[in-house]
């Protein structure tokens, strides 16, 4: 019981207090929250006033302070994803943000507007698909980490366990004594399938855990921070259960771990910039020191282009890896686009074959039906491309299939000589799940579904897949330039990277626009406007004038592209870099 959270909750509301009642068998706990002082105390069911308005809730995300005061964030609807080792896994579907204050009359018009904007930011994060939780099982850690933990760790509540882990996106407002009340929620992707090969049924699970450190959106969060946390860092674990046996294979992805940025500027592909004033090795070493502690040996698979704008990044990564002098970190560069150009996707096998010996050496985690650990995974593959989305997911799915082949043979599910690729029904499940994983990770970071999922789903590249990639790329372009500043602010606010002061007089939301915007407008609108005439010379002059005006306007806008995109307002750029 010490490590579980409460499954069934009811929220009782009065003008003075919130009462959160635990409805599980054998519990009498009630968390009382004073709506004026915000004080939280544990009491019993007898303290709930009969006149309170009651509603069932599925969990508590935590509390957050906005301009109008403190808000309680609760889960109001959940969906069962599956059962993992006998424990229900849920997906949070709907949420409610409830104000402690009974009125907003104490706010000015500007404060009301700012508070409304902050609320929309919180809703923006909550409506992002991918919040999962379990009330009586630790989803934040891999099977191997859980097996190697101390007795003290096992006695911790699920929420307390996550204090040093980077994968929990809830519980920011927790007070002492609330460990079993607050629901620990993660942003991730989970798929759970019951599969059958050769008449033998096994459970196959794929879990991707998104880190809350250096969290953000595609172009505004790249590289690492001073603590060595990488942008878009995701830990992906593939789990097999068969006849009481458990097997697990873990991989990671994350932005290239040095100080670089790629700010949107209205160009289709902004040029990446490597910081010239920062000691890259400090953050680089911190990153891999933590990776070695968590995962053991590391094989870096750098999939970026080795020419063009991506070439300096690959060269910088290779140089830092060579200078690190860490025998537990091996660097492998593979120019994905060059090798697979002209639809030659079979050449991905070159990379898989080149690292096969290291994959066999690192192995996977295996526990028999008696709970005895038979094998440990001694190292992981850390893959990256520019976004750590499309190219990365393709490679991870191939490496995971190779590990799965070995696991299923060891467990006796596959016969000697059989290949996973030959099992049509399972292969379809496998490919679709990895494609869905790509889409989930991409929507959370880039704002659209992933590219190249036609290969992941079918095993080959198609013309329709190229068309869909083009469509998704256009949507990414629009979102990255004109809506990602708001999305980045939403994440920073949700995770506490920016703290709102109650009744704050002035917030960064009301930043004055740059001087360049009026100038660009004046080019178009504040000049004498010729009109088209009846003669061809007048019409030509009309066309030339407006053509020149449009070209000048476009030139000013593109030259000052940074000032025309939707940029974050809450966290300073220097901190983000």
Automatic annotation (TrEMBL):
Matches recorded under PANTHER family: PHOSPHATIDYLINOSITIDE PHOSPHATASE SAC1, PHOSPHATIDYLINOSITOL-3-PHOSPHATASE SAC1
Any single Pfam family the record assigns to this protein: Syja_N
Chain ranges of the SAC domain: 122-447
EC number, as in UniProt: 3.1.3.64
Protein name, as recorded: Phosphatidylinositol-3-phosphatase SAC1
Taxonomic lineage from the root: Eukaryota, Metazoa, Chordata, Craniata, Vertebrata
One GO cellular component term noted in the UniProt record for this chain: endoplasmic reticulum
GO molecular function, one term: phosphatidylinositol-4-phosphate phosphatase activity
């Amino acid at each position: 019981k010490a490590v579980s959270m409460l499954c069934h909750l009811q929220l009782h509301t009065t003008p003075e207090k919130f009462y959160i009642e635990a409805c599980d068998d054998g519990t009498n706990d009630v968390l009382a929250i004073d709506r004026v002082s915000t004080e939280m105390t544990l009491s019993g069911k007898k303290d709930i006033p009969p006149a309170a308005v009651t509603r069932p809730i599925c969990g508590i995300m935590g509390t957050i302070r906005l301009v109008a005061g403190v808000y309680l964030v609760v889960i109001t609807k959940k969906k069962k994803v599956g059962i993992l080792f006998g424990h229900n896994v849920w997906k949070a579907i709907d949420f409610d943000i409830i104000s402690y204050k009974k009125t907003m009359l104490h706010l000015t018009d500007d404060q009301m507007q700012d508070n409304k904007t902050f609320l929309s930011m919180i809703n923006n994060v909550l409506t992002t698909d991918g919040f999962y939780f379990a009330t009586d099982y630790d989803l934040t850690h891999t099977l191997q980490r859980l097996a190697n933990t101390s007795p003290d760790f096992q006695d911790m509540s699920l929420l307390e366990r996550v204090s040093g882990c980077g994968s929990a996106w809830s519980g920011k407002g927790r007070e002492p004594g609330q460990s079993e009340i607050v629901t620990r929620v993660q942003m991730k992707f989970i798929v759970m399938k019951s599969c059958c090969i050769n008449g033998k049924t096994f459970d196959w699970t794929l879990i991707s855990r998104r880190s809350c450190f250096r969290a953000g959106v595609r172009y505004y969060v790249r590289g690492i921070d001073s603590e060595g946390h990488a942008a878009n860092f995701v830990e992906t674990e593939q789990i097999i259960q068969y006849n009481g046996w458990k097997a697990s294979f873990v991989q990671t992805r994350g932005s290239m771990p040095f100080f670089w940025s790629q700010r949107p500027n209205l160009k289709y592909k902004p040029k990446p910039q490597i910081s010239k004033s920062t000691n890259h090795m400090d953050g680089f070493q911190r990153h891999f020191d933590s990776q070695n502690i968590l995962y053991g040996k590391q094989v870096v698979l750098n999939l970026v282009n080795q020419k063009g704008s991506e070439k300096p990044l690959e060269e910088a990564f290779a140089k830092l890896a060579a200078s690190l002098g860490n025998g537990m970190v091996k660097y492998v560069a593979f120019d994905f686009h060059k090798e697979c150009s002209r639809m030659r996707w079979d050449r991905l096998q070159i990379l898989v074959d080149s690292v096969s010996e290291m994959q066999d050496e690192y192995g996977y985690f295996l526990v028999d039906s008696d709970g005895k650990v038979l094998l440990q995974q001694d190292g992981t593959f850390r893959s990256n491309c520019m976004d750590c989305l499309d190219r990365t997911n393709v490679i991870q799915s191939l490496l995971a299939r190779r590990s799965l082949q070995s696991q299923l043979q060891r467990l006796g599910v596959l016969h000697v000589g059989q290949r996973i690729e030959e099992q049509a029904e399972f292969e379809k499940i496998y490919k679709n799940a990895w494609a869905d994983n790509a889409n989930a990770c991409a929507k959370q970071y880039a704002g659209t579904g992933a590219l190249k999922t036609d290969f992941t789903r079918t095993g080959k590249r198609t013309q329709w897949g190229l068309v869909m990639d083009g469509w998704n790329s256009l949507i990414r372009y629009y979102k990255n330039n004109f809506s990602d500043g708001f999305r980045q602010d939403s994440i920073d606010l949700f995770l506490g990277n920016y703290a709102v002061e109650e009744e704050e007089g002035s917030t960064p939301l009301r930043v004055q626009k740059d001087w360049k915007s009026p100038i660009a407008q004046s080019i178009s609108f504040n000049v004498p406007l010729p009109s088209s005439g009846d003669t061809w010379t007048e019409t030509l002059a009309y066309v030339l004038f407006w053509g020149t005006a449009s070209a000048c306007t476009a030139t000013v806008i593109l030259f000052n592209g940074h000032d025309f995109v939707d940029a974050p307002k809450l966290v300073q750029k220097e901190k983000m870099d």
